[in-house]
Amino acid sequence: MKRGVWLALIAVLLAGAAAQGATMTVKLQFVNHLQAKLPEQDVFILRTAGSGQVYRVTAADKDRNAILYAAAQPVRHNPFSSKANGPYKQGRSLGITLSQWLDASGSGNYSCANGTGTVRASFKNLVPRALYTMWYFFLPTPPTQPFTGTLDLPLGARDGSQNSFQADSAGSAVFRATFKPCLQLSNEQLASGLAIAWHSDGKAYGSDAGPFGYRSHVQLFLLLPPATAR
Question: Domains plus CATH for the chain?
Fold first, then answer.
């Protein structure tokens, strides 16, 4: 993201966070990109065997048994342009099918009381025994054209020490984090949300989400509602 956009988003974030303090609770329901009517951003499929070229998964890709791949290098997120769906040079197999990827689900709640926020969430059908991290992201509304990306912050401590969690052998996981200040909800200029990223290399990257599409793969996300829509 360009420096000017980052600074503008941070200014809005700080202004909103400073005003928070009332008690509130928001239900959380995570979805994948296809459920949000967007292309999957960080997993790819081969549409022609042996071509060495992969594409982002879209609603037109019906083969649920298709093997998913990483790209051969990091790929910037851009869910708003069909031109950004590929092709990209094929990377390694991720060892899971499209069905396994889309079967993941998650829900929970976010609460804010006296300036302290808490996120509690549980997940099912994640990649078994895999490392995940949770992210707090911001998106200008309407999105910039061309799209310049999101501002991604580790949920909780800014060094990423609070946002990692591990799926068990069945792909289930529970996440909980408490932090200050409370999260900023969405408003007319800025949508805020939460997302979980699978790290297919088994490594977290601290305050950085890691190389999207290459080693880091956002599987589920949600947008937080406006304060008036709780």
Answer: 3-36+103-229 (2.60.40), 44-100 (no CATH)
